[in-house]
């Protein structure tokens, strides 16, 4: 029962936190008026992609927590979550594409370090972060392109 409660807490913090930050920093008119690169995905794709990613992130964090609460992996997991939650307020809230680009580059590096750290200890957790790494790499390119175009 304790493990299930722990998983629920990770899901609430990760998915709930992502949803709350997303609702608090909706793209709005400012973003709508930006010149977009040709590979900019349609707006409707972000919500389902992030929902799936947040579930994977929560699962990976929970599993790492259950195995090694004070590990480097857990510290990296928390660091990536903080950086993840800082990106939307930087980009949409402050409308600082340059600051957001800095945050997302740090986020991508942290994700890659987390994958590397967990690879030899729990490959399932490492695999859970691979779609996240791919999406954040794409989002980094998108952020940089928006900064250049605008």
Automatic annotation (TrEMBL):
Keywords: Membrane, Transmembrane, Transmembrane helix
Example GO BP: tetrapyrrole metabolic process
Primary localization: membrane
A Pfam entry, by short name: TspO_MBR
Spans traversing the lipid bilayer: 44-62, 74-93, 99-115, 127-149
UniProt xrefs under InterPro entries: TspO/MBR-related_sf, TspO_MBR
Membrane topology: Multi-pass membrane protein
GO CC term (a single one): membrane
Subcellular location: Membrane
Record's keyword annotation contains Ion transport: no
Keyword Membrane part of the UniProt annotation: yes
Entry's family note: Belongs to the TspO/BZRP family.
PANTHER family attached to this UniProt entry: PERIPHERAL-TYPE BENZODIAZEPINE RECEPTOR (PTHR10057), TRANSLOCATOR PROTEIN (PTHR10057:SF0)
Designated name of the protein: Tryptophan-rich sensory protein
Species for this entry: Limoniibacter endophyticus
Gene field: tspO
């Amino acid at each position: 029962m304790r493990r299930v409660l722990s998983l629920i807490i990770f899901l609430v913090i990760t998915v709930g936190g992502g949803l709350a930050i997303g609702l608090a920093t909706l793209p709005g008119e400012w973003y709508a008026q930006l010149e977009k690169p040709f590979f900019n995905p349609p707006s409707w794709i972000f919500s389902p992609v992030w929902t799936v990613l947040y579930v994977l992130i929560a699962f990976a964090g929970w599993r790492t927590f259950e195995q090694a609460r004070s590990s480097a992996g857990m510290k990296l997991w928390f660091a990536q979550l903080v950086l993840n939650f800082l990106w939307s307020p930087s980009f949409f809230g402050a409308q600082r594409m340059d600051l957001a680009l800095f945050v997302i580059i740090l986020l991508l590096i942290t994700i890659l370090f987390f994958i590397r750290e967990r690879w030899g200890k729990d490959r399932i957790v490492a695999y859970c972060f691979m779609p996240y790494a791919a999406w954040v790499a794409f989002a980094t390119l998108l952020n940089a392109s928006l900064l250049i175009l605008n």
